[in-house]
Structures are given as structure tokens and as C-alpha cells.
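User: Assemble these into one structure.

Assistant: Restating your components, then the assembled model:
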Amino acid sequence: MFNFQYYNPVRIVFGKNTIAELKNLISRDKKILLTYGGGSIFRNGVYDQVKSALTGYNIVEFGGIQPNPEYDTLIKAVDIARSNNIDFLLAVGGGSVIDGTKFIAAAICFEDGDPWDICAKGAPVKNAVPLGTVLTLPATGSEMNCFSVVSRASRVEKLHFSSPYVFPKFSILDPETTFSLPRRQVANGIVDAFVHVTEQYLTYCVNTPLQDRQAQAILKTLIEIAPATIANPSNYDCRANFMWCATQALNGIIGCGVAQDWTAHMIGHELTALFGIDHGQSLSVIAPAVWRHQRAVKKTKLLEYAYNVWNISAGSDEEKINSAIDKTIDFFRSIDMPVTLKDCNIVPGNFANIADRLAERGMILGENQNIGRNEVVEILNICSG
Amino acid sequence: MFNFQYYNPVRIVFGKNTIAELKNLISRDKKILLTYGGGSIFRNGVYDQVKSALTGYNIVEFGGIQPNPEYDTLIKAVDIARSNNIDFLLAVGGGSVIDGTKFIAAAICFEDGDPWDICAKGAPVKNAVPLGTVLTLPATGSEMNCFSVVSRASRVEKLHFSSPYVFPKFSILDPETTFSLPRRQVANGIVDAFVHVTEQYLTYCVNTPLQDRQAQAILKTLIEIAPATIANPSNYDCRANFMWCATQALNGIIGCGVAQDWTAHMIGHELTALFGIDHGQSLSVIAPAVWRHQRAVKKTKLLEYAYNVWNISAGSDEEKINSAIDKTIDFFRSIDMPVTLKDCNIVPGNFANIADRLAERGMILGENQNIGRNEVVEILNICSG
């Protein structure tokens, strides 16, 4: 096991009717910027629950944060927050609203030039306005971590940052808020959570049987609950288990002391920046291709995955690994996710460009740092379809 | 799944040579009370590592905290801390030193009468001196939770309290500090961690497949690593996995949203208070007896435990449950733990007294509140030997 530090001070408030707890979680003297996305919270009653819980609070609202939250939008929120002396941010929405609000929180306090440098140049975040979240879309795990991914359309960039200052003070997870989600967003969320786990699990073995089993626990549960979670939007138990799986997938626990490989995410971010495809869709296409390409260095864990997650015990090692990857692809297909670039209308002519963009940022990917420009093209060819 | 809150701000610093990190974890201006137990830290080099890391710090030392930390001892530390204006406590040791230090931390700030009321009457803890830990004995999970158990010999009492104020600010877990542990303490620790899991897992089902698998992950890993962990004290990987299992067993994650039953601990605490037996030994004796007695209400989870932890798939439901309990007892025996009261030299004549003590404190046990005085005697009879 590698040495590691684990620190995660996010308070999770989970369950039915928990939005009402907001009044116990935010001090009455705070001036709140309430951030949200495209307005689904008005249709599903979440906005009303939030406003009801915060009756008497001083609230400024900022809506319109896009999926793949856009820098130009977030900077407007920063200006509004500064001019209104906002001292608490409440993000109500999915991972994009939360990621965007983390960026707003850091940017408000950023005084060393262009806030985009936080993402583009790793400029250090020295402080942030405190934030809390009401999660409505299980997927990214952003509600219980200090990561954020922000896009900037004018530069065709989708970049991430992290800082302990942007851990939410609390996150409210009421599974009932997910009942009205579009089917596509639920499927995206299932894949996002699934691949968050595999990025921390399918690497090389450093003798971490507990973390491996914790990873398998999330994967097996997601596979088990996916059909009913999609088919029955108001099945509370399914939505609750899905929500908790997605949070646990990226709160740091399964990543303790293990090798990690975020290749599928890094390539996927480029696909989203260039072609606008959903984050979850980029992962359902790319992740299995990464495993096929890296099967030699990931062999031990892929065999473990085959046996423990998919109950595959027959055949040669190569057959087991193929079967595990095929079953994963079948699983993604079963919830109507794309599994090839062709499914996403991305054609081979673009592959070199994608690899170039990663190479330009000096990104050598893979837990063994063996995925450079050529290998990215090979991975994209594997899933071209 | 039940509604729940999860909050755990402890920073875990895990791995080889991590004691040196102390200087980055405690501000130089703190006046530290360094607490420890019977002196093993002098023999295994941990004391020297701590003092070396804290060169130049203002440190007062307080040793001699007993297994089952004793109120009369802890109160002396409170006096020393107050008279020395201590503003940070560093506990170096196992669960008893950490639990005791949590009590010291709360008692220093307690101004509403006798600090024993914190344990005996649930007097509210309104503040505590901040504390950190260097863990040397994986077992209790105290390094990553806000619980504490304290004994008071003059009253023959062993009682617990909890408060968010006594979460350690950090806990350093260096598996190498465990290499010199006596075999018996390692076996005790394995059982303690194991039963922490079963107390949160073997209850009734509320549709929590992820938490169930997370619980099974710890149990299976403990079973897998126990033989080599005991046989090869300097096997780093085994000790590391054991250490991380013990922490994860009681940091709250597996307890999220599930029914819990701390019957084995509550009866076990009485056995320790009355007869001085090790905490781990009380659990290896009592826990399986609780499952046998409560097999009807715990049936679904016991069958799940049989299948998923012990790979038992043959036989009737009753046979599967018997086999799972028998295998657990065999496992405990395999690491030389007692499995009957007779093994601990406790004879049937004492059983009514034990049940009376719990009844006097108004304790009705079990996840269904169905274990009263008579049932406690029945459970004790099951494991009398």
C-alpha cells in the first residue's frame, strides 16, 4: 500500500425531506448566493423547498450555470458575489452547478490575476468563500470532494482544479430530488460513478485488498441497481443507493493508498471540449478502450475485476479479460449509453488533434506514465466503432 | 435506507515514516500534553520518533494511561493540563490512550460539575482541547471517530461518550509501529475491528447493498490477512491492511443509513468492568452468542453474511446460519481468542448480576429493543461454555 493522506470534512445530510435542514446548516447572518443551472429546480419543487427552508435569509440568486460549467458564466457570478458582499454560496443542482460554484468560491477570493489561471496554470487557491450544496443529480461526487472541472468555450478548454478550500461545508442528498431527472442524465450518472471507481481500481496491484473490495462493492451495486433505477424513477431505494454509490465513488476512500489512472477522464474532457458530448458518454466510450489498450499492465486487476465483479471464472486469462470488458460494454449499452466514437458522431479524422491537445499540455497519462500521443490515438482507434 | 448524517473531519496520515509529519500537523506555538500508556513506546522507538519530530516544541508528558483508561488517572492529566495551560493533546498509543485523551480533552473544558457526568449522565460536551493521535495498536477505530470509552474502577463502571469536539485533528497511522505488538493485542485488535463491523451489519435489512458490501469487504479482508498478520509481525503489507481495516470499521462509513446493534459491546463492557477481561476477548465470546440468540430477527443478514463472507451456499437456512456462526467462532479460536465465558474463567453464577447492571442503567438492547434482562442472561448462557 502506498503512503497516503485522507481528509474529507464534508458533512453529508442524506435522506427524505432533508432540504429543510438548510436552516440548521447555514448561519442566519450569512448573505447567500444561491446558484443553479437551467431551471429544473423550478419544475421539480427543489427551488421551493430551498426557499422555504431559508425563509428570512438574505439571498441573491444566480441561475444558468451550464452543463460543463462555462467560465464566462461563472465570472459573472463572481462579479455579482463581490458586489453583493456574498459570504456563503449554496449550489443547488448536479455536478456542473457544484463544480462551477467551487470555481466561483475560489475566484471571488483570487487576487493574483486571471482566475482562469487556477485551472489553466495551477495557480494556488489561498482561500475561498464557504459553500454548501443541495445535490439533485448523482454522478460526479463533487458534493463530497474538493475537485472541480470548468470549461471555457472561447478557448475550447475543459480543465480541472482542486483545493481543500472548496470542500463543501455540507451537502444535502435527498434521493427524491432525482425522481424527475431525464433518463439520459441518470444513465450518464451511473457511468460517471462507475468509471470514477475503475479509474482508481483498474491499475496495478499494491496489496490493498480492502480498497479493492470497496471499489468492487460500488461497481457491483451500480450494476445491480441500474436497471430498476432507470426503469422506475420514483423507486426511492434505488435512487438512494445510486446516490450514495456516486458519492462514495469519488470521496477519496477507495483511492487511499492505491495507484490511479485518470486516462479515460483526461481524454474524455477533450472530447467534451471539442465535440460537446456529455461527460458520462465520453467515459462509456473511452474507459473500456483504455483497458483493452493497457491490458498488459492492468492484467492483475482486470482479472480480479472479471472474477469479483462479473463472476467470470472460465477461460484463459485473455478470454477472461475480454469477457469482463465486453460485459462492461454490454452494461453501458443496456442503459442506452454510447460505446463507440461513431455512436457520438466523432470520426477518425479528429483523433490526432485530440492527442495533440493532451500532448501540448504535457500530459503523459496512465498509472505507468506510458500513454503519450501515439497511445492516445491507438486508444481512440480501439473505440472508433 | 434510513436518513443519516455523516461527518468525519479527521485527517489520516498513513504509511511508513509518517510520524515525522507531526511538525507539519501541530502549530509550533502549541503547548502540548503528550499522553501515552504503559511505556511500550519507549521500547519500540515510537517515543523517540515523536520527540525527534517535535524538536523545539513545548511538551509536557503524561504516561501511565491504562488499558480501559481509568478515570482517576485521566483526572490527574486534566489537572496537569490545566495548570500548564496545555492547548494541544497528542495521544501516542492504542485505543485506550486515545479514548482516555479524548476524555481529558473534554474534561479540561468541562465546567458544569463532575466530569464523570460526561460518561455517567450524558452531560453535554460544549468544547474540548484539540487533539491528535499517533496510533500504535489497530483495534478500536478511535483514531478516526468521536467516541470514547472510559472506566472507573471505584464504581466498577465502564462507560462511553461521544462528541464532535473530540474528533482528532489528525491521526498518524504508521504500520511499522505495530511490529512489536504482543500477539495477544493483535488478536484482540482483529476481533475488535471484526465485531465493530458486525455490530453495524448483522441487524435487519433496510436495502443498503453498498453498505452491506462495504461491511463484508472489511470482514473478508480481516479473515484473509489474520493468519499472516499474527504469524509475521514485521509483514508491512499485512499490518498496513489490518490497520486500515480497523480504522474503516468504525469511522462511520459502514454505519450510514443502516440499523445497528451494539449488544455485544454493551454486555462486553460489563464483563470488562466486572472481571477485567480484555475488550477484544469480551467480544469474541459474546458476539456469536448474540447472533445465535437473535437469529430470527437477524435472519436475512445472517444468511447474507454466510453466503458472502463465508461462501456458505449448501444446507437449509438454519444450517447456513449455524455454519456461519461456527466458522466465525473457529476463526476467533484460530487466533487464540476465547470463545466461551469459561475460557475467561467467568462462571454462570455471575450472569444475573451482569444483566442487572445493564437493566439498572435502563439499557434495552438490540436493533429491535428486544434484549432485556432475561435475554441478556440467555445470551450469557449460550456462551457459558
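The radius of gyration of chain A is 20 Å.
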